[in-house]
Amino acid sequence: MRTDRPEAVWRRATVADLAPLRDLERAANLVGLAHVFPAEQFPFPDDAVLARWAIVLDDPEVVTEVVDGDHGLLAFAAYDEESLRHLAVHPSAWGTGLATAGVRRSVQHGVVRLWVLAANHRARRLYEHLGWRPTGVEQECPWVPHPTELEYALVGSRA
Predict the structure, then answer these.
(1) Nearest alpha-carbon partner for 113 in 154, 143, 145, 144
(2) SS (H, E, C) 104-120
(3) What's the pTM?
(4) Tens of pLDDT, residues 84-93
(5) Partners of 12 in the β-ladder
(6) CB of 89 within 8 A of CB of 73?
(7) Phi first, then psi: what are they for 136, rounded to 5°?
């Protein structure tokens, strides 16, 4: 089933989703970013990520949407009027269209920029496939070991 079709039900996240948001982020990062944040060297910062999600959910300018699964959240997308701030899909749902759907939902609300880890090749392929391009602007990621993040801007209308 392609979940970018109506079968995927996106709903607004609530404070009850704090721990599930952190858990989904952990699951996606431990698989997709293990080459950047090796767990044996850099344990997942559970408390800091939970605190960040509390701030995000409390921010009236940020929309956070989620898709529920049988065993927790399958996807989330958090964005404001301009930026896609957070996007993740549970590894068990990779390839189902949820990431594309999350990006498209954010674009429908005006998103035209995002930041992605330079070494997050899977995400970069998705964004570039959807018409996003690096702007040439880089910054240091706030999470140890502080890898490079790249700014991307939407330049096409395929997203």
Answers:
(1) 154
(2) HHHHHCCCCEEEEECCC
(3) 0.92
(4) 999 999 999 9
(5) 65
(6) no
(7) 95, -5
